[in-house]
Amino acid sequence: MNADLSLFHLIKEASFIVQLVMLILVVASVVSWTYIFSKTRELAKAADIADEFEEEFWSGVELSDLYKRLTDADFEPEGIEKIFLAGYREYSRMRQKAGIDPEVQVENAQRAMKIELNRELERLDEHLPFLATVGSISPYVGLFGTVWGIMNSFRSLGNVQQATLAQVAPGIAEALIATAMGLFAAIPAVIAYNRFASRLDRLIGRYELFIDEFVVLLQRQAHSQ
């Protein structure tokens, strides 16, 4: 490959604006991949915790025993476990008050679980807007760098009587690198965002289904006492 058209040389010789665009895209790509790896682990862990918890929950264990285990000082509850704790804690607190209607006990427990669900959704949704932003604007940022680079390339030919492809090619090539980098940053971010959004929807659906099932259990327990 001609040294003048090598990737490193083209980036090095690009204008300041084009180099700045490339730097922004590289940083965006690095941050995106960091979030992608961390969010992959986070969602996988949340799904595993939900699997283990639901298996134990429906095994016939006493709710009070499960509550004690999850509130142990050496244990840090996460995800669906926090939702269960919020509901059972509120239910137990309301039961200790005299004259509280069973329906009110259950409604308060359900409300507490919904609040915890929203907190969990907010936590799991963190960084997804960044991936969506990178996926949507990176191609345009790269295109801006390309347009700017091509403008400079043709502007430099203004005083040249006879332009040749050899004179134009390096400038256009360095400009097109910005577009390629924009796509390189955008494509993984879009794929990851769509994948994470789908997994998050399924996980939240599981949480909501658990809340509904737990509420039915609490209603039976409240009316049987």
TrEMBL record:
Record field: transmembrane: 16-36, 128-151, 171-193
Pfam families from the UniProt entry: MotA_ExbB
Keywords annotated in UniProt: Cell cycle, Cell division, Cell inner membrane, Cell membrane, Membrane, Transmembrane, Transmembrane helix
Localization: Cell inner membrane; Cell membrane
Domain MotA/TolQ/ExbB proton channel, chain residue ranges per copy: 80-208
InterPro entries: ExbB/TolQ_transport (IPR050790), MotA_ExbB_proton_chnl (IPR002898), Tol-Pal_TolQ (IPR014163)
GO cellular component terms listed in the entry, alphabetical order: plasma membrane
Main location: membrane
Membrane topology: Multi-pass membrane protein
GO biological process: bacteriocin transport; cell division; protein import
Family: Belongs to the ExbB/TolQ family.
Role: Part of the Tol-Pal system, which plays a role in outer membrane invagination during cell division and is important for maintaining outer membrane integrity.
Oligomeric form and interacting partners: The Tol-Pal system is composed of five core proteins: the inner membrane proteins TolA, TolQ and TolR, the periplasmic protein TolB and the outer membrane protein Pal. They form a network linking the inner and outer membranes and the peptidoglycan layer.
Name of the protein this chain belongs to: Tol-Pal system protein TolQ
